């Protein structure tokens, strides 16, 4: 097929991805199908030089977002449309710098510009004012030196995948022996706080439906037990807080565990939820033994297999007859089967009696 025929075929595919009456944005299945078809069409229409440049210049977009955040430009525009001149006088930045940053923001659709040079808000501008979104932009930019060091790290170690948490591009870049979370907790507590705010909202999500809307947790909570639920490495406890909002009548104990520095940094959490400093590489404390559910949300993907075995092994030694819930299994519903099956395999390796 010629390029033109391929493009025509993709346009037809795009049309047939949506049937009349479909809710094209709110229905997740339809949205993902259309997005895939549209991305295929964009890829076919993109010249090779444009495709490479969009990757190599990507970090520049990220940098502009951070400067816009630091200057509070999204907050300024969300409250009122403004010119670059106005924003320069409010922020003290050079007007030309504001124009350049805003040029990028207009190009990516994060703001709109009218003919008279006035910038106004789009739905993305509003998203950019959310604390978790700002924190996500900042935290991911903070880690760019690790990506930059990765080719050098791999060259030096003969292109082998890391097998431990303490010999990775992170330690190579930051010249530390600590694993990344302990490094942030102990050496850069402010960055750890930003990371936790990021995890509270993950770019303003929901990236996926909250797990308690598709997992039959009410059956578990209905059983009389001392500890109902343990959120292992639960950060600021936003998952447990969401569960409690959905099931406010729960009487049994609900527990959030994380590194001591993270637990101490929790600012707001319902008093029914216990805060427990705990290192998941060590045995689970006696006080959580027999818990009905252990939640691992966004955890196992961070670690090599042997560490996942340790984390899961510590949970296995503590759980009684209750289920072990990893929200990453929810990826099945969003279509990422590879993550789900890799996670399942890890469970099966360490919890063979639960093979289904
Ligand atoms: C990707 S975040 C996930 C947080 C939360 N479960 C969520 O879904 O938002 C990983 C969490 O693991 C915690 N963590 C890392 N190493 C840990 C350890 N050795 N023991 C306990 N928690 C740890 C981090 O502090 C962080 O809160």
Please describe the topology of this protein.
Elements: H1 3-16, H2 28-45, H3 48-56, H4 58-71, H5 73-79, E1 82-83, H6 84-91, H7 95-107, E2 111-113, E3 118-121, H8 123-127, H9 131-142, H10 144-156, H11 169-174, H12 180-186, H13 189-201, H14 217-222, E4 227-232, H15 238-246, E5 253-258, H16 260-264, E6 273-277, E7 293-296, H17 305-318, E8 324-326, H18 331-334, H19 337-350
Parallel strand pairs: 4-5, 4-7, 5-6, 7-8
Antiparallel strand pairs: 1-3, 2-3
Helix pairs in contact: 1-2, 4-7, 4-9, 6-7, 9-13, 12-13, 17-19
Bound molecules: S-adenosylmethionine.
Can you tell me about this structure?
This is O-methyltransferase domain-containing protein. GO terms for molecular function: O-methyltransferase activity; protein dimerization activity. The chain is an alpha/beta fold. The chain has four domains: 3-56; 58-129, Arc Repressor Mutant, subunit A (Orthogonal Bundle), CATH 1.10.10.10; 133-201, no CATH class; 211-354, Vaccinia Virus protein VP39 (Rossmann fold, 3-Layer(aba) Sandwich). The chain is 54% helix and 9% strand. The longest helix has 18 residues, at 28-45. Mean pLDDT is 88; it is low at 328-340. S-adenosylmethionine is lined by residues 181, 199, 233-235, 239, 258-259, 262, 278-281, 297-299, 302.
Say which CATH homologous superfamily of the largest domain is assigned: Vaccinia Virus protein VP39
Strand order of the largest sheet: 6-5-4-7-8
Beta content comes to: 5-15%
* Unique bound compounds: S-adenosylmethionine
State the helix count: 19
End-to-end distance: 45 Å
Count of distinct strands: 8
Q: Report the CATH architecture of the largest domain.
A: 3-Layer(aba) Sandwich
Structural class: alpha/beta
Overall mean pLDDT score? Answer: 88
Low-confidence segments: 328-340
Shape: globular
Number of domains: 4
Output the radius of gyration: 24 Å
- Mind summarizing the main beta sheet? 5 strands, parallel
Helix content: 40-55%
Q: What is the H/E order?
A: HHHHHEHHEEHHHHHHHEHEHEEHEHH
- CATH T-level topology of the largest domain: Rossmann fold
User: Which CATH C-level class of the largest domain is it?
Assistant: Alpha Beta
């Amino acid at each position: 097929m010629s390029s033109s025929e391929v493009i025509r075929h993709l346009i037809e595919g795009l049309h047939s991805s949506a049937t009349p009456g479909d809710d094209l944005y709110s229905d997740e299945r339809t949205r993902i199908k259309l997005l895939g078809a549209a991305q295929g069409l964009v890829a076919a229409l993109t010249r090779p030089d444009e495709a490479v440049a969009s990757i190599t210049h990507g970090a520049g977009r990220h940098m502009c977002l951070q400067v816009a955040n630091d200057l509070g430009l999204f907050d300024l525009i969300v409250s009122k449309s403004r010119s670059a001149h106005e924003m320069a006088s409010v922020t003290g930045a050079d007007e030309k710098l504001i124009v350049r940053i805003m040029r990028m923001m207009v190009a990516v659709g994060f703001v709109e510009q009218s003919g008279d040079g006035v910038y106004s808000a789009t739905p993305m501008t509003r998203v950019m004012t959310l604390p978790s979104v700002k924190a996500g932009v900042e935290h991911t930019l903070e880690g760019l030196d690790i990506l930059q060091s990765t080719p050098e790290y791999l060259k030096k170690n003969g292109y082998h995948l890391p097998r431990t948490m303490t010999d990775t591009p992170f330690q190579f870049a930051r010249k530390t022996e600590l694993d990344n979370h302990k490094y942030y907790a102990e050496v850069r507590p402010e960055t750890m706080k930003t990371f936790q705010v990021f995890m509270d909202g993950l770019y303003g999500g929901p990236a996926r439906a909250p797990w308690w809307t598709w997992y039959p947790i009410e059956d578990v909570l209905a059983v009389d037990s001392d500890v109902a639920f343990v959120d292992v490495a639960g950060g600021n406890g936003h998952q447990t807080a969401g569960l409690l909002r959905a099931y406010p009548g729960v009487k049994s104990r609900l527990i959030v565990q994380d590194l001591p520095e993270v637990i101490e940094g929790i600012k707001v959490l319902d008093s029914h939820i216990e805060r427990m400093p705990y290192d998941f590489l060590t045995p689970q404390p006696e006080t959580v033994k027999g818990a009905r559910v252990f939640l691992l949300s966004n955890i196992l993907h961070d670690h090599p297999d042997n560490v996942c075995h340790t984390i899961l092994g510590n949970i296995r030694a503590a759980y009684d007859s209750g289920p072990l819930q990893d929200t990453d299994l929810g990826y099945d519903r969003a279509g990422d089967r590879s993550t789900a099956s890799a996670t399942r395999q890890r469970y099966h390796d360490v919890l063979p009696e639960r093979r289904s």
